[in-house]
Every structure is written in C-alpha cells, then in structure tokens.
Amino acid sequence: MSEDFAIKINQMHKWYGDFHVLRDINLEVKKGEIIVVCGPSGSGKSTLIRCINRLEEHQQGDIIVDGIELTNDVKKIDEVRREVGMCFQHFNLFPHLTILENCTLAPIWVRGTPKAEAEEIAMGFLEKVKIPEQAAKYPGQLSGGQQQRVAIARSLCMKPRIMLFDEPTSALDPEMIKEVLDVMTDLANEGMTMICVTHEMGFAKQVADRVIFMDAGQIIEENVPTEFFDNPQNERTKLFLSQILH
Amino acid sequence: MSEQTRDYVLGEHPELPAPDQRSGFVKWAMENLFSSIGNSVVTIVGLYILYLVIPPFIQWAIIDSVVLGAESRRECQAINPDGACWAFIYRRWDQFVYGFYPAPERWRVNLSFVFVAIIIAIALVEKLRAIKGAIWVALALVAACAILIVGGMFGLDRVPTNKFGGFMLTLIIGLTGIFASLPIGIVLALSRLSSLPIFSIFATIFIEFIRGVPLITLLFIASTLLSYFLPPGTNFDLLVRVLIMVTLFSAAYLAEVIRGGLAAIPRGQYEAADALGLSYWKSMRLIILPQALKISIPGIVSSFIGLFKDTTLVLIIGLLDPLGIGQAAIADVKWIALSNELYVFIALFFFVFCFSMSRYSLYLERKLHTGHKR
Ligand SMILES: Nc1ncnc2c1ncn2[C@@H]1O[C@H](COP(=O)(O)OP(=O)(O)O)[C@@H](O)[C@H]1O
Ligand SMILES: [Mg+2]
Predict the structure, then answer these.
(1) If B221 and its partner were Cys, which of B5, B225, B287, B291 is the partner (CB 3.0–4.6 Å)?
(2) Is B368 in the A-facing interface, judged by CB distances under 8 Å?
C-alpha cells in the first residue's frame, strides 16, 4: 500500500503541552512529487515537516515514510533520517568544520563511506550547487546564499530519497534567493521527492505538483498550483494570497 | 603617490597601497599611555612605583644573591648579607624535586618526567595526535610512569608513596587531576543535561555537593574519615585517596564550565545533526562537544590553573609538596627562617606552569577560531 507513496500521513495530531498544534493532518506524497506548503506564520508548517523526520514527535495518527512507520523505535527513526534530507531556514551548518567536512561527516559516520569516496561524492555535489571552490573554507566565511547551497549539498551527500525544506530562502538577502531556488529547481527536475515550506510563489508555480495551504494547524486547501493561485476556494487562502501577492 | 591617485579614469580605480599599519613604540606610547593629562599622570605614577619596587628586588634577587659556595645561612650572610641566599634552594634542590624518594631510584622519576613530556606533547600538538595509535602510546606511557614511580614490579623496588614529595608530587597530583577530570567533567555535564532523570539528578547532586564543600574538607575526609568507611585492614593508599578527591573536585567545576559551553550551542546544531541521522554519541562527539569545549576553553584552563595551585593544600594532611618540603627546610637550623627565598622560589615555579597554561589557552582559542558565527 505504501509502495507508490514516499510519505503517507494519516489522521495525525500533535500537541505542544496543551496546545493542539497540528489537527487531523492527512497527506500523501507520491515518489517524485514536489509539494509546496504555505500559510501564515505559526500555522504549524515547520512542525508538520519536522514530524516527517521525527525532529518532533506526533501523538496520534500514523506517519509512514518510505514504507517505514515512525514510532518510538530508534532504529526506524535513524533509518528514516538516513533517507530524508532537511534544509533549515538558518542553514545550521557546523561552524567548526570546513565546507567539505560538513558534507562528508554524515556519509562517513552514518553510512560508513570511506573518506576518499565521501570526499569525491561531496565535491560532486558542491559542483552541482556551484561552489566547489569554497570546499576548504569555513561556513562563517561564506555568504548566506552560499551557506544554504552548502546545506543542500550536505543533505544530498547522504543520497536521500526525500528532501524537506523549511523556508530555505527567508533568511536570505533578495539577491541570494535566486541562487538557492535555482538549485532547488534543478533538484526538482531530477525527480527528487520534495516538501518545501516556502512563500516563493514563483517557485511554487514553476515546479510544484501541489500547493498546500495551512492555517491554525490544519490543512485548509490543497490544489495544483494554477488552480490554487488563480482560483482559491477558501476565504482564508484568498486573504493570505492577497497579502503576499498584492 | 598623489599623481597616482589623480590619474585614474572614472570607474577604474587604481590599486592603492594599504595604509601603514605599523606603529612604532613612540606612537603606541603616545596613543596608549599619554593620550590625556589624566592618563599621563597615571602612567608616571605607575612608572614611579615600578621604579621603587623593581630595582631593589633585582638587587636582592640577582646582583647581591649567593648561589654557590655556602653551606648554611650564616655562610651566605658572610658572603653577602644583603642578597638572597639561593644556596639554600641549590643545596636542597633534590628534595624540592623528589621529596624523600630514595636517591639511587631517582632515575625512575627522571625517566617519568621524559615520558610525561611526551604525553603532554601528544595531548597538545595536533600533528602528533593525528598519528595513528598516538593515544595508545600516550596511555602506555601513563602506565609506564605509574609502574616506574611506584615500582614493585619488573624488578623495580617498591617505593612507598609517603616518600614522594616536592615538584614530583605537585606534578603527579596536578597532571592526574587535569587529565582525569576532563573526561569525568564532560560526562557529568552531559548527564546533568540529560533528559533521563536518573542521570541528571545524580549529576546535579554530585556536582552541588562537591562544589559546596571546600577542597581542604574533602582532603581531610580522604585522609581520616574514609578509613572509618573502609573495611578494617584495607590499606588504601593516602595518595590514591587524595588523587581521587582532587580529580572529583576538579571534575565538578569543569562540569559546570562545560555545561555553560553546551548551553551556548544553538538548538539548530542538534537538529542538523539529528536530521543527518547521527546518533546521540556521534553528534555529541563530532558536532556539539567540539564547539562547546572550544567556547569553554578559558573556563576550563582557569579550572586547571586553580587545581594546579590547590595541590599545595595537600601539605595540610601531611603530604610533602614543595611548600611542605620548604617549610621543613626552613625549620632546619642551618637554613633557619629563609622564608623570602622559599616563597619567591615556589611562587616562580607555580607562575611558570600557570602562565604557560594561560598562554596555551589563548593560542588554542585563536587557532580554533573559524570565522564569525551567523
Ligand atoms: N517547541 C515548541 N513548544 C511550544 N510551542 C511551539 C514549539 N514550537 C512551535 N510552537 C508553536 O507551535 C505553533 C506552530 O509553530 P511552527 O510550526 O513553527 O509554525 P510555522 O512554521 O508555520 O510558522 C506556533 O504557535 C508556535 O508558537
Ligand atoms: Mg516555520
């Protein structure tokens, strides 16, 4: 049943203490599908995608990632995390390691890849995100856009089948947004399964298969991009779109 | 130069030489010591005080001092009554270094000093540490030092620990404390922050107990009280008990310093490590601890310096560290009451070690600096 789905979320609920942050989430993501998640701040977008690699724990319902159900079983969590890459709003590169070491760390220590091979793979991905010449530098010496591209390369070095992006461009200066979106677009065109929390509507129109709108912990609306933008159904979606598109 | 700057075409700036950043002593002094009237007054008063203190000290300690050719205080005074009588230190040198370690066996201590130097080099020099098996060499050397100094094995005579003394004893207590307390401190800090209550409660109680009790009290516990708890007849060496107490004491302080460093690591670092699939121990070892320890270096080194100086407290429970040796020595009629010489000498010894540690910590901080955090 889970064969053709990369991610399947079924009647999932999550609370922070008493606060019901995610309510009855149902979502199926096919392999190779690109999903864009948008919605007002505090609506639970980050929490939702962080549940997918168990950075947050859900309390009710099922999440099945790549055929593995997320439970308290640490082995399964590790298995899922190996297959799911994640990019954060603030990059979260390791400041004490060089760019190359950032990229080879997980392959070497999690997958047991020999160092030389890991470095070769890492250089390949750094070329793909167009910064191989920065390999020997430290994250603190790079611009925001470059750091985010390194963060993407670092995730890709684990050869994940699914990539999660949590507002990857919202901490960036405008002129750097495009360089990151270009990398993400390339990735989408190569058939990566992706869930992106982003308010970059141009990106959503261009590459998304579906756009999901969240508000107050619920999925309010879900549609293909053309319909979603041109013909929103829900009042709250209309309000939100009018605010961010003018 | 002015021609160079005038000739440029708009949009094509010539490369200008960087401004002169050298500064001579005069310029530095003008900017830092004489920048205002108040500043100048303070500088002059300061210089005057130095003038009052330093020349007489040099006169006493170096120019008028007696090192050789005197067998007692009286002979010193016969040679030069105004100078320091370093002959006292010179004649008692072996005791200051080895305590009452039997003279024919002192080569064992000397060899251990060489081993200790190698161990410290392995611990501090990255190139040596990177060599495969370096850690095992270091551990083997630690064992070798212990066997050499204590003996009772491999045909070496057993030397009872109450013969240990002097700098040798300071180094045994100080270095054991430093090397043993760091890993224990790290484990305590991680336990205190653990989400498992057994670990955090145990670590918190332990740390707060040790920090709430003066080291002297712990040393008294080690020397007297422990014998009540131990089964009668067990001969648990006093020095070993002291080493354990000093290590635990230092570990409790280190744990708090390291906990501060851990608290400064942004949550995003933990999350990125988790998201990449690193296990708890791997993410601690590879991501979190290297950064937390780096932030904690000044605090860790302060702790070590404090520990090193606190080793002098063992004289209160009857161990003969340099201060104990010295106090016994100046009670000797031959060298009676040479306390100035004694304390200057011991101060110098501790200063050299503690100042080196402090400089090394600055060097390490600079070396580990990898650009600005965002
Ligand atoms: N660790 C936490 N503990 C308690 N509340 C939290 C925590 N993280 C997020 N929240 C709350 O959950 C809600 C959803 O947060 P989030 O998923 O970050 O929203 P979004 O990413 O859509 O802006 C917010 O109201 C936020 O304040
Ligand atoms: Mg968010």
Answers:
(1) B225
(2) yes
Q: Which architecture does CATH list for B165-368?
A: Orthogonal Bundle (1.10)
Which residue out of A22, A23, A47 has the highest number of ligand 1 atoms within 8 Å of its CB and is therefore the one to mutate?
A: A47
Domain of residue A44, residue span: 5-245
pLDDT per residue as tens digits for the range B216-233:
888 888 888 766 776 666
Residues 6+ apart with CB under 8 A from A25: A9, A11, A12, A13, A48, A61, A218, A219
Confidence band, pLDDT 50/70/90 cuts, at residue B234: low
* A158-167, A212-221, B232-241, B273-282: the lowest-pLDDT one: B232-241
Q: Which two tokens stand for residue A115?
A: 């160092």
Hey, which residues does A196 pair with through a beta bridge?
A: A36, A165
Reported pTM: 0.83
Residue that is written with structure tokens 């009286």 in the block: B74
Asked if A236 and A62 touch (Cβ cutoff 8 Å), the reply is no
Which residues fall within 8 angstroms of residue A246, CB to CB, at 6 or more apart?
none
Domain count, chain A: 1
A16 C-alpha to ligand 2 centroid (Å): 15
Residues of B in contact with A82 (CB under 8 A): 277
Nearest residue on chain B to A112, alpha-carbon basis? B278
Q: Which atom of ligand 1 is nearest to the CA of A56?
A: 1
Strands A19-30 and A5-16: antiparallel
Whose atoms come closest to the Cα of A167: which ligand? 2
Residue ranges per structural domain of chain B: 110-158, 165-368
CA distance B200 to B187: 11
| pLDDT tens digit sequence for A103-160 | 999 999 999 999 999 999 999 999 999 989 999 999 999 999 999 999 999 999 999 9
The Cα B167–Cα A140 span in angstroms is 44
Supply the CATH number for residue A40's domain: 3.40.50.300
Residue B277 and residue A139: Cβ atoms within 8 Å?
A: no
